Automatic annotation (TrEMBL):
Alphabetical keyword list: Cell membrane, Membrane, Transmembrane, Transmembrane helix
Species this protein is from: Alsobacter metallidurans
Subcellular location per the Swiss-Prot or TrEMBL entry: Cell membrane
Membrane topology: Multi-pass membrane protein
GO CC annotation, single: plasma membrane
Chief subcellular location: membrane
Protein name per its UniProtKB record: Branched-chain amino acid ABC transporter permease
Organism placement in taxonomy: Bacteria, Pseudomonadati, Pseudomonadota, Alphaproteobacteria, Hyphomicrobiales
Transmembrane residue ranges: 24-43, 55-81, 101-122, 129-152, 172-193, 265-288, 300-319
Amino acid sequence: MSAEATSAPAAAARARSRLALSTTAPLVMLALFALLPLLAIATGQTHWLSLINRIVILGIAALSLDLILGVGGLVSFGHAAFIGLGAYTAGVMVDAGRGDLLLVVPAALLVSAVFAALTGAVSLRTKGVAFIMITLAFGQMAFFFSQALYAYGGDDGLTLPERSTVAGFPILANKVTFFYVSLGFLVAAYLLVRAVAGSRFGRALQGARDNPVRVGSFGFDVFRIRLGAYVISGMLAGLSGVLLANQAEFVSPAYMAWQRSGELIFMIIIGGLGSLWGAVLGAAAFLLLEEALSGFSEHWKLGFGVLIVLFVLFTRGGLADLARRLTGGRA
């Protein structure tokens, strides 16, 4: 029997393994997330609720970046700017007495979409290192602009007088309810990104990542496809900023710092580049590891960096690929 004939069943088996895992793993992960607050309450460890909620919120941000990085191959070092824009939109509206979530979320999505469209129209005319640097530049511009907002605290940030209401009701005041609202947004964001990635638009975006010239020769406008993905990604990151501002009840220019964009990239790499559920898993691993190490030493970031380097060196596809191999798939 030829090598091609023997490799065909193996390839089919690997494909079935990936499909099964991509279907069941997100369901298992989301079910665990849903049970964690109940477990924290049952064990009296309610202080974990804030960390779990932060994982879910930053999971949305990591998922948004994975759309353009993992699916589209666009390395952005300014993605935290969208988180900051969403957070400041929430902070300013709550401070002005118009902080209902039904108003704040559409406003934050609009602000993020406009910023993404304007900056993306410029950034996406470049590629490679130039794209990385120009997204970093736009992110830093947003960072320094927020520092100049002296009416809203400037470099000291803005403390929210209260959390956003939902249709006039203080639903987010309760930590458990707030968590499930955040989880609902995460589920919606995951379904949206998965639908986009699996659509004709998403396949064209993946094709543009691998061979933009060939995709363009088929009649697709690569620039518009990438710009559309960039806008969707920015809007989802802005949504995570709204939730982050409400959870912390505080908004700071630090949300927009380039280091935050780097952290999002690390989350995606840890979880598995291009694996949408892996991006959320990577956010959980990143924040849990950060929480564990910070309790040992004030120099915990040194050990954190070493662990990330070792992880990248000795795993090829992140936690998502590791899970696939452990459940019967082959590398």
